[in-house]
Amino acid sequence: MKPVFLRLCAMAAFVTSAGAAQAQERVLDGFNDIGAWRLVVSNQVSGSLRPVATPSGGHALCLDYNFNGVSGYVGIRRNLPITYPDNYRMSFAVRGESPSNDLQLKLIDASGDNVWWVNRPGFNFPKNWTTFNYRKRNIEKAWGPGQDKQLRSSADVEFTIYNKVGGKGTVCFDRLTLTPLPPEDTSPLQAKAITDTAPALEQRLADGKPDTFWLSGAVKQQTVTLDLGKVREFGGAVVQWVPGLQASQYVVRSSSDGRSWRDLRTVTAGAGGTDWLALPDTEARYLRFDLKDGPNWRYGIKEVQLQPLAFAATPNDFIKSLAAQLPRGSYPRGFSGEQPYWTILGLDGGTEQGLIGEDGAVEVGKGGFSIEPFVVTGGKVLHWSDVSSEQSLQDDYLPIPSVDWHHDLMNLRVTAFVQGTPDQAQLVARYQLHNTGKDAREFTLALAVRPFQVNPPAQFLNTLGGVSRIDQLAVDGGQVSVNGKPRVFAAQRPDAGFASAFDSGMDVSHLTAATPPTVAQVKDETGLASGVLLYRWKLEPGQRREVALVIPQTGAAQLPAGFDADKAQQQVAQQWRSKLDRVRISVPAEGKPVVDTLRTALAHMLISRIGPRLQPGTRSYSRSWIRDGAMISEGLLRLGREDVVRDYVDWFAPYQFADGMVPCCVDDRGSDPVPENDSHGELIYNIAEYYRYTGDKAFLEKMWPHVTGAYDYMETLRASERTEENFMRNPAFYGMMPVSISHEGYSAKPVHSYWDNFWALRGYKDAAMLAGALDKPEEAARFSAARDEFSGDLVASLGAAVRQHNLDFLPGSAELGDFDATSTTIALTPGGEQQRLPQDLLTKTFERYWKEFSDRRDGKREWKDYTPYEWRNVAAFVRLGWRDRAWDATAFFFKDRAPQPWNQWAEVVSRTPRTPFFVGDLPHAWVASDFVRSVLDMFAYGR
Q1: Beta bridge partner(s), residue 473
Q2: What is the DSSP secondary-structure string of 14-57?
Q3: What is the mean pLDDT of residues 496-521?
Q4: Predicted confidence (pLDDT) per residue in 544-568, tens digit
Q5: Which residue from 599, 472, 579, 573 is spatially nearest to 527, judged by alpha carbons?
Q6: Which of 255, 493, 679, 865 is 20 to 30 Å apart from 631, CA to CA?
């Protein structure tokens, strides 16, 4: 050890003496003057600023906040012009007593429209002062219309606390600095090895040659150090051991100077072969391996390879790096550079939803682990990449999905569903193995509990897909506990089972071992623990064997007494038939897929909700937007589920803000204050539509304050735009709802959206109707007058925008004069304005859509992706009398169900469906409602 230490000391001395002068850190704000900062808060969130002394004798700024039961944000902002060098590090100090809400650093340009940020979701605020450093690569363009993604200059700085879990707290800020850095070093990571062996031998550690190796001396305690020659950034290391000469216990440390060392990783149960070490965002000159113990009296290493930052920038990146090096099928499809698809598992109005993937893996709940099947026969592991998979639904429409593996030697069917009630729900997964060969054969069905979601890593919004940490796992007979809680119960006791830490090898790596592991319980600091239940059968030709797993989602964590998987499936199927068959539609045989998909869409709208909360999805969009809820409600009402719509409106309406503003959406955090000016009309419409179908005056009386509150708020908004000054600025803005980002296409910069305004008009019309229904003549007259005035202003605005932009179609917004027929459909239904719109512009709008649609369909037009919200155009075609076009569009959209037998659409459809992309949610209940309403319009609709 002494020669190694002396060599490191000599190198450290050289580094210290020869250290080049570094660029000076610039203090942007020392927070000594809190008057430079102003408080920024959203609706009904409160906050205050105060100075606080720091240990160094200076001052810092503390933000005391309270979300007061609503969603939204609170923060501090100041004008602070900054010009950024080619490479840099931005730093600031934070301490706080705060729930784990999101911490955001925002850098805003002079226009105020373009924002760059660092967003730390669910931030754990340190109680003591801690400095956080962000390099240029960590600061990303958040939003804005500017095309330049690189941050070159900014005018304002903002620190934002965004509601993640709510509550109240205190967050303090100090010492915001900017340090110029030299250009990023992208040269290969080359290192020299330092050990206590001969130099010629030690260099074999990092010579890049697969046929050389290093052998240690005959001492258990060994140190291997890699010297990069200067401080470099890297993301991990891969250690390839000589068979039988691995270190099973060792510590990985880093240092920039050879004196001060930081522990990065501890391995306690290494199994040899290849060790994959995630060392994210490491910056050091030296990487040291302190070898503690192993199965032999010495150690042997073939190679240590340092990996770039991208290797393990995130847990998902780490698994993708492994999947690229290991046989296809070792990891789920989503980590292997291929886009997977899935469907949901749940109850009508349940509080948790599972997923089943197209390859047969079952995710137990939102963000949770999955159970993935493997079959071992003839010494080979068969996984999703070795079989052809086929999907189906029971009776072609019930939300009881199956995946069938087809292979020359066997078939495996995986069927999953949820039984019980919202407070006592169990996910059931059934596995039936069938010997399709001509000879008797030994099979092992391996059901692996894995730290991966079915929701793939390409899904980044709200619920990040990919890895789902398992820090502890225990297998006890037919029970598997995950992170200390019993989660999986086997209805049939397995023949064997084991748990495995990541460093000992992922589950699949042990399946062909002559003697599988016998470890029953593991703890794993990597969060990548796994476990397997093994069923060993000898199957005669044509013979089948079946097992079932039960995963409680709510209620008691135990196997239900007397559980019978077949009876449970029959009972669940009958329950769903009674819910989905209330409206019967008779069609010829060729129409059966349409009706089956209609009923499945109804099931997905019911399953996607959480209790009474209607929502478009269960992962990315597990929130209730009133626009989605209102349109889903219409579909539910038309299919006989008035009870669901009443429960939804009754739940949503009280989240209205005190000033009458209707939140764009609501979730567990409360009302979202982002102004989206379609929401007010949508709530009124939702209440009115329920009343039109039920005539429930008692409920209407209860909702009346919410109707008048939304009406009054719309009047305030309308008045703010109905000024002479605004007319002179642009007559297309006059009297409209103010700018907002309710339409997804306007998220870069808010505009006067006609989507908002047609929804506002719908709200005015329905408010007047409801006033009449409740025999309120004064309100009815006032609401009707406002309706007529707003309707006239809307027609005038459309005319002004058409003239300004020289259009021959109805635009999506006043500012842009953009073509968006799918948005314009809202004017027809539910807007009801077809006869009052300029007929030539209306016709040309949908003629243009048809031309673009048919060119895309026929391969005459390049396209990347589209959203199946385009189903709304089918309803428009029906109203325009274009029956053939309605059917042609239906046939096209039906081909893009994903997968087709599961009767569902994602929010986004890609032209390259196997290239990973963000799909939104799958299934997407708002898309399902567009399909439902359009298909029902093909039979009958109200004018």
Answers
A1: 482, 522
A2: HHHHHPPPPPPPEEEE-SS-GGG-EEEE-TT-EEEEEEEE-TTS
A3: 93
A4: 999 999 999 999 999 988 899 999 9
A5: 472
A6: 865
**DSSP codes of every residue in 512-564:** T-SS-----EEE-TTSB-EEEEEEEEEE-TT-EEEEEEEEESSS-SSPPTT--
The C-alpha atoms of residue 513 and residue 517 are separated, in whole angstroms, by 8
Q: Cβ neighbours of residue 776 under 8 Å, at least 6 residues apart?
A: none
How far apart are the two ends of the chain, measured CA to CA in Å?
88
Q: What is the pLDDT of residues 446-470, one digit of tens each?
A: 999 999 999 999 999 989 999 999 9
3-state DSSP: the chain helix, strand, coil percent, rounded to 5?
A: 30, 30, 40
Q: Write the single-letter amino acid at 23.
A: A
pLDDT of residue 218: 84
Whether the predicted pLDDT of 890 surpasses 90: yes
Q: How far is CA 172 from CA 27, 31, 79, 185, in A?
A: 17, 10, 19, 34
Contacts of 886-894 with C-beta under 8 Å, sequence gap 24+, read 886/934, 886/938, 888/854, 888/857, 889/853, 890/594, 890/934, 890/935, 890/938, 892/853, 892/857, 893/868, 893/931, 894/593, 894/594, 894/597
**Residue 624 to residue 8: CA distance in whole angstroms:** 59
CB atoms within 10 A of CB 620: 22
Q: List Cα–Cα distances, 408 to 275, 361, 382, 386, 388, in angstroms.
A: 35, 21, 11, 10, 10
- Are the C-beta atoms of 372 and 400 separated by less than 8 Å? no
Contact 512, 381 (CB under 8 A): yes
- Does residue 5 carry a pLDDT above 60? no
Residue type, 335: F
Q: How confident is the model at residue 23 (pLDDT cuts 50, 70, 90)?
A: low
With 90 as the cut, is the pLDDT of residue 207 above it? no
CA separation for the pair 502, 488 (Å, rounded): 20
The count of C-alpha atoms lying within 13 angstroms of the C-alpha of 247, restricted to the half-sphere facing its C-beta, is 27
Residue 16 pLDDT exceeds 70: no
* φ/ψ of residue 827, rounded to 5: -65, -30
Cβ-based burial of 148 (10 A; exposed 0-12, middle 13-18, buried ≥19): exposed
Q: Which residues touch 31 (CB under 8 Å, ≥6 apart)? A: 58, 59, 60, 61, 173, 174, 175, 176
Cβ(683)–Cβ(645) under 8 Å?
Answer: no
Domains of the chain by start residue, with CATH: 2-18+185-313 (2.60.120.260), 26-180 (2.60.120.430), 325-560 (2.70.98), 587-939 (1.50.10.10)
DSSP, collapsed to helix, strand or coil, labels residue 317 as helix
